[in-house]
Amino acid sequence: MKRTTVIFLCIIVVGTGAFAQKSADVLAYIDLYKQIAIKEMKRTGVPAAVKLAQGIHETEAGKSNLVVKSNNHFGIKCKSSWTGNKVYHDDDARGECFRSYSRPEESYMDHSDFLKNSPRYAFLFDLDPTDFEGWAYGLKKAGYATNIRYSQVLINIIRNYQLEDYTLIALGKLKESDHTLAANTALIPYKIPSIEKEQQDIEIEGPAPSYPSGPFTINNTKVLFAHASTAWLSIADQYRLPMNRLWDFNDLEKDDDILKSSQLVYLQRKRKVGNVAFHIVRNGEDLYDICQSEGIRYESLLELNHLNGNMQPAIGEKLYLQQPAVTPPLLMNAHKSKVSSNGTNQPKAYTQESGIFNLQPNDVNNTETPSKAEYTTHVVYGKETLYSISKKYGVDLAKLKEWNRLNNQQLKVGQSLIIYKDN
Fold first, then answer.
1. Contact predicate 277/296, CB 8 Å
2. Gyration radius of the chain's alpha carbons
3. How far is residue 252's CA from residue 348's CA, in Å, rounded to a whole number?
């Protein structure tokens, strides 16, 4: 019997492992403690978004053993200066001493004072309170947590649950009556993430697919499996399709006379959404492979996952096929392109007037970008503007527009922008 093999080597698991926390618990946590977080921000300056994200993560959305035993929402250990109540809990070592509180409010206040009064966290209070990314990275840098991805965990929680709105409320920049409460937003699963030490140590493989001979359907779309060296013209003639339409159905601008490798060939236009909710990226797959195997249009796959065609999601990442992802997937440091040097067998370049995905695969080599530059992807949230994003990353506004092929400064929440670091 064939079976799927999943090999995880050199993976560090946070807490008790990959624990799937129901989104309803996270929303309930936010609803319970958002007012305290806002009040504490007004009192001490600790951003409400960061405080809530830390509380959600540290307590597994209010369900961890530590918070149940001690009302300790931020994992603060006793240290020599603590004279209050104590509990003992296994963390980095067995039976470590943690602070215990009679009420959650006391934990929130102690956390604020702990950060405010400690010299090693003083630099955080010089940051713009809306710079939650700066706070997240600063907390890790100052040694708040040993988790190597602690910063990214907080950033993802803040984005996924729109926690930045509570910071804006505390600053008086957003009226609470104008705010869509977390409980009214779409349910977003919260997962205590596993930490991938080395991407190349992760292999996700499954049985090779077995396709029937002749036409069949994937995602309610007629398709066949054609072997390498099959002539495109013979397929077009057999099924009475113009060659250009056949290539269009398969998201190709053009191709050689024959298939260079065996692949699925669609005889009808693929769907805008998949037949299943998501796809887990496997070894050796690129975005084109995935759109073919799932019967979803190439541009739809990019749009749903906030990707550009020159990006390669990391192995094991989840790609959404029916509804937009909240954040883009993690990317590989480098990927093997299936595009030949002469430009054939290349997925079509797609452009949206909104500017979200108009860095085109065909134009990557023609884009004026810094040589050997590394880039990061920024997902637009809240009321961000192109100007504020350029200031956040210290890049020129004109360059930011050029890198992302933007014709204007209009942005949408969830839009993905490429930002080069070496400029």
1. no
2. 25
3. 5
Q: Which residues make Cβ contacts (< 8 Å) with residue 317, sequence separation at least 6?
A: 280, 281, 329, 330
Rounded Cα–Cα distance for residues 259 and 270 (Å): 19
The C-alpha angle with vertex 128 and arms to 126 and 129, in degrees rounded to 5, equals 105
In terms of Cβ atoms closer than 10 Å to its own Cβ (0-12, 13-18, 19+), residue 101 is buried
Burial of 28 (0-12, 13-18, 19+ CB in 10 A): middle
Contact between 80 and 65 under an 8 Å Cβ cutoff? The reply is: no
CB 206 within 8 A of CB 6: no
- Tell me how crowded residue 327 is: count the other CB atoms within 10 A of its CB: 17
Burial zone of 94 (CB within 10 Å; 0-12 exposed, 13-18 middle, 19+ buried):
exposed
The upper half-sphere exposure of residue 217, i.e. CA atoms within 13 Å in the direction of its Cβ, equals: 6
Other Cβ atoms less than 10 A from the Cβ of 270: the count is 23
| Span 150-207, pLDDT tens digits | 888 899 899 888 899 999 999 988 877 544 444 444 444 444 343 333 333 344 444 4
Helices (H), 273-377: 287-294, 298-304
pLDDT of residue 174: 82
Residue 102 CA to chain centroid, in angstroms? Answer: 37
Q: How many other C-beta atoms lie within 10 A of the C-beta of residue 151?
A: 20
| CA-to-CA separations, 239 to 211, 212, 232, 267, 418, in angstroms, rounded | 18, 17, 11, 8, 41
